[in-house]
Amino acid sequence: MQKVSGRLLELVDRLDTLGSGPSLVELANAVKGVNLTLADVQDFVRTNPRSYQRTSVVLRDRYELLVMTWLPGQSSVPHDHAGSICAVQVLQGTAMEGCYHVAADGYVDLQYETAVHSGEVTAGQDGGVHAVRNPSDATQSLVSVHVYSPPLKNFRQFAARPASVEPESRLVHKHTPTFVVVGGGFSGSMAAAQIIQRASQAEVRIKVVLIERRGAVGEGLAYGTQDPAHLLNVAAGRMSAWPERPDDFVQWVRRRKGDVLPTDFLPRQWYGEYVRESLLQTARTAGPWVELDVIFDEVRRVARHPTSGWMVHLTRETSVRADGVVLAIGHRPPSDPPGLRWAGLRTRFIADPWRPFALTVVGPEDPVVILGSGLTAIDAVLSLCHKPKRAPITLVSRHGLLPQAHTSTPVKPTDLKAMVSGLLDSAGSVAAHELMRAVRQKIREAAQDGGDWRSVVDGLRPHTAPLWEAMPTAERRLFLARMRPFWEVHRHRMALKVAEQFQSLLDAGDVRLVAGRLESVQTQDDGLWLVLRELPSRRLIEAHAAWVINCTGPVPSNSVESNPVIGSLLVDGWLRPDELELGIETTPDCRAIAADGSDVADLFVVGTLRKPAIWESTAVPELRSQAAVVGERIVDSLVGQQHAVAVI
Ligand SMILES: Cc1cc2nc3c(=O)[nH]c(=O)nc-3n(C[C@H](O)[C@H](O)[C@H](O)COP(=O)(O)OP(=O)(O)OC[C@H]3O[C@@H](n4cnc5c(N)ncnc54)[C@H](O)[C@@H]3O)c2cc1C
């Protein structure tokens, strides 16, 4: 057995320090950071005239490090990566990486090849079928180092199409411009609907492929609940999915469910149905030149096609070639609370309270601790208390703040134009504490006149986008660290009915709220024993729980760990994260900004990932406008092309 030493050992050390599930970027950075040369791996280079050689350097539970050697003309068989991510550095020669399409007859067809030259590092998620070959027609071997995490096991191999077997797609070839929308929540469904509607009106030929990893479109994380007690936190009159038809949701509910008022707070479940129907109805009534294809699968990788457009690789289904991609991946499904890995018994920890039937395991005699006290926690409490609940529920959150309630009659927003323009300094910037001071002053004035603080908070709503834009990074950071929790509970309020139900549970002592943090957790025969540190008193409080529920709320899918699509695009430089890690950088018309600062014309983003540009990128009014902009840009880009072809 060869000894691992020098820079190869340094790479092993770096890989050992990565956690149990390193991200694609971490893996690629570890390889780039060491920057091996051929001399470093010489002892592991093996050749065999019959086949390329794989030499294992280190095999751990979490990863495998290999050196691979291809003689001129040798190649691997097309294969997938079966759940492993991979980083590769070429140390000698050029690797041609072929990307394949799995055809209906079971053969794979080569789509395109990308050259990876000596010294370069590439990394990929597990999506798609690929093969590597040494194109050299001279004598030079191709040598590369590969890290797979977890080790590559049980992968599938595919048969490349023999020259004698004609593929069906080669017989009929007519290219329809194809746009893939990744994510079928509100943002993705309405982006697809907008593209379809506009293409239909402009008589533009187009295919929209909407890919969603959950079992339904239209719902996403927010509107998939089956519990009718979970209400929208915005009145029905402000929840239309279409910017130009403000009463569309209210009209839909009146047709489908019965009479309602625009001021009513309706079940979130209805809203999911409404979004789904808006999309499907738009597709049904579109012209025959517009096609919608919905695929229920997870997108694992979006890779640039060397000629133009993208290849979108899925977990199970065949990869899709796209002229453009819309990322609408929204929130990451909750797992452990942000920044805290749950250390207690996992079978007693409900990491994702939005998962269907997640809370049905909790019995009426089971004491519960809920991490978080925002809207998600309130939803969980209402679900747990449908039937009389005899054991206590403890909510614990850092500030112990609860969302405020809406009023029974809507308040009139205060006109804050003068206040907002007075806040801008000579450079057009706004200081976070000045803004908060001005808002507090307005609230005091409103109270003196017998008004309500809600009218001031709602009066700020039309100004949040320009104010956010005017805040320098340091001020944004200050706002996020010090003011955000207080702003959120006033801005995102609960329906009055929900607030009243919750208050009666608090008054009855069925629910208690602790401001503080989780200090420790121990497993006992009958459940969990938690120690909470109350703040600011620092007093220790003990709580027995049969279940702990993570209700720390939605977090954007903005990191490589949170979504495989993000990983591959970040590594390849097609996306650029923002400095404050709120999401990614985008242009005002929803295009991605690449790592080198250029606009990516055929990669669009809708939703919470756009928070760095538009603070309110989680609210329906902003999301429906973003979907409309994307629809307009995509269809406009095709109108010129297709009409020009028609004239010729
Ligand atoms: C509990 C809750 C209640 C809310 N209530 C309101 C309200 O009353 N009013 C309001 O204006 N806003 C509300 N919001 C804000 C809400 O976030 C937005 O209204 C909107 O639903 C966001 O939709 P989205 O499509 O951007 O994101 P999401 O809802 O997160 O949807 C993203 C979708 O993309 C899919 N996806 C992600 N990655 C992949 C992948 N790699 N491959 C395939 N599919 C993928 C996910 O499965 C998901 O379905 C609420 C949010 C929550 C969490």
Model description:
- This protein has 648 residues and is of the alpha/beta class.
- It folds into four domains: 6-149, Jelly Rolls (Sandwich), CATH 2.60.120.10; 178-219 and 290-332 and 557-647, FAD/NAD(P)-binding domain (3-Layer(bba) Sandwich); 339-405 and 494-550, FAD/NAD(P)-binding domain (3-Layer(bba) Sandwich); 417-490, no CATH class.
- 29% of the residues lie in helices and 24% in strands.
- It contains 16 helices and 27 strands.
- The strands form six sheets. The protein has a seven-stranded mixed beta sheet.
- α5 (186-202) packs parallel to α7 and α5 packs parallel to α16 (620-647).
- The radius of gyration is 27 Å and the shape is globular.
- The termini are far apart.
- 41% of the residues are buried.
- The mean pLDDT is 90.
- It binds flavin-adenine dinucleotide.
- Flavin-adenine dinucleotide is lined by residues 182-188, 211-214, 220-222, 232-234, 298-299, 328-331, 376, 554, 563-565, 607-608, 618-620, 623.
Give me the CATH architecture of the largest domain, please: 3-Layer(bba) Sandwich
Strand content: 15-25%
User: How many domain units?
Assistant: 4
- By DSSP (H or I, 4+ residues per run), the number of helices equals 16
In CATH, what is the homologous superfamily of the largest domain? FAD/NAD(P)-binding domain
Please give the largest β-sheet: 7 strands, mixed
Categorize the overall geometry.
Answer: globular
Secondary-structure class: alpha/beta
Q: Return the average pLDDT rounded to an integer.
A: 90
